[in-house]
Design brief:
Distance between the termini: 50 Å
Largest sheet: none
Number of strands: 0
Structural class: mainly alpha
Helix content: 55-70%
Number of helices: 5
Strand content: under 5%
Number of domains: 2
Shape: elongated
């Protein structure tokens, strides 16, 4: 709030450049929100998986091979 009151947006020059370039390329929405929505559907409990297992599971999920993940669960 303080940054807004002082008339600045609170973003670093690098972040402002990143946002401006994204807007110029046609991005109208933060892709992280879309990933979060998809991750909620993911059958993998990442708190119980190693980073390598989580990576492989997300790759299968993103590829649409959701049934393969059931084999890894036992």
């Amino acid at each position: 709030l303080r940054a807004a009151a002082e008339g600045v947006d609170g973003l670093s020059p690098e972040m402002r450049k990143f946002i401006d370039e994204a807007k110029e390329s046609g991005v109208t929405r933060c892709p992280i929100r879309d990933i979060e929505a998809q991750a909620e559907k993911c059958p993998v409990d990442f708190s119980m998986a190693s980073p390598e297992e989580a990576r492989k599971a997300m790759e299968r999920f993103a590829a649409g091979d959701e049934d393969e993940g059931a084999e890894a669960d036992g």
